[in-house]
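Quick one before lunch.
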Amino acid sequence: MNISALQLERAKYQPKVPKSLVGAVKLVLGEKTESVANQKEIKELFPNTYGMPLIKFEEGDVRKNRPAINVAVILSGGQAPGGHNVISGIYDGIKKIHPDSRLYGFLGGPEGLIEHKYIELTGEFIDEYRNTGGFDIIGSGRTKLEEEWQFNKGLEIAKDLDLTALVVIGGDDSNTNACVLSEYYADRNAGVQVIGCPKTIDGDLKNEMIEASFGFDTATKVYSELIGNIQRDANSAKKYWHFIKLMGRSASHIALECALKNQPNITLISEEVAYKKQTLADIVDYMAGIVAKRAENGDNFGVALIPEGVIEFIPEMKILIAELSDLLAEGSITEKEFKHLRKSHRITWVAEHISAESAKVFLSLPSGIANQLTLDRDPHGNVQVSLIETEKLLGEMVKIQLEKMKKSEKYIGKFGTQYHFFGYEGRCAAPSNFDADYCYSLGYTASVLVSDGKTGYMASVRNLTAPADEWIAGGVPITMMMNMEKRNGHLKPVIQKALVELDGAPFKYFASKRGEWAYTTKFVYPGPIQYFGPSEVCDQTTETLKLEKQ
Ligand code: FBP
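Model of the 1,6-di-O-phosphono-beta-D-fructofuranose complex:
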């Protein structure tokens, strides 16, 4: 049998849910909503789904007799722990509405909808995936669902399967597309509702009504366990500086959460780098300064956390990356020319085709990093920051800086480095109790929104620092989270990304402590996720959320 003892026990875990979801559910309509910005433009673009009211669920008296419904689900974008529980929650929810309800899963992300590739998710099949990590139940993908022909292909299969609704489980880009799809179907009276669910380990899909995206809790717990193990090793051997890059394509929520949990010596926060307009040289100076000061106390070791997206927040790198993205834009003449060049000629060729300032920065980078910056962008046009070894770039630059400092006797230590990248290690971990409960509740919430005929809503479960039975479930119109942003040169309606707020409680707490953590060794070793045991150990959520809710 290829199943572990823990998995067997975990399969029996019954997720905790808000009390409003236990029996009959009453929908209470709240205030009408407005988009976070650009109200006029968003209203014009979403005439059918703009301004809808917030929805809060309460315990109802009598369960209404509802007809069976057919629902399909899509997993979109990067994996995040708990996706399987969202699907279990939807399944249990629609079966409670009517035992003849059916759930389908489109395979491989949005592509499955367009290509009509799907499976029916039966109870027996779903049972094997309850409380497990990964998205392997139906797979995921990053195809952008944004063109009319794709929506029409989706409608064809929705009609064939007699679908009432499509649930899109994704991050800000995927939920933006879900919103556009809901408007398109509503406008044509297509009879297919679209509901979103907030997913991403990056933690950047959040706002007043969406307190957290799922997966962030588990992923950061996994990274913090690993960081803690490395901190202990560093403190035992006392001979290495560990440079650890952490996932989080844009926002630094993961790095900040791990800093709050582990108390490492250095943590870069991309949003602060951008705010202070710190150059690469400023960052290297800051890091080398801490290494040198620790060395004065005989501590030639330490741990530095680096958010993977930081490279795009350093002003001169941001300009360079934008110029490279234009130069190497998919399908452009210059991209073709670049791809035909011999690898050894590429760096000089690129330097000749960008501005003089950017060429200077580009040529000052180690060649490995320069090459990584020219790699293909993802389907959303983003640089694939997970492929850029920023930890090595910074480590090597800090070393050069320390050598200079040595000459002027400002540094007297030894500098040995180890490099790590934690990202994929956490994305498919078995969900923590928090994520198992939260995801199941989100899925169940989505099923209630579907059965009540709602479209263009995102499932929302709030009050997340309270025990699960006090969580508040409901729905938030996706248009409420939108603003207009420039994407690929055009203004588009998109969900506003939540970056780390420098005046928010989590960053402020971190900023008040980081000096102490830098020079003295105050490491915390959180240990592995616990699934069984006292609630204070097993059910606690993130430090970020706790500080935000204080
Ligand atoms: P989502 O925003 O789709 O959830 O993905 C986030 C993420 O995990 C980032 O942290 C990381 O940069 C990226 O995905 C990696 O993408 P890929 O899985 O395509 O390598």
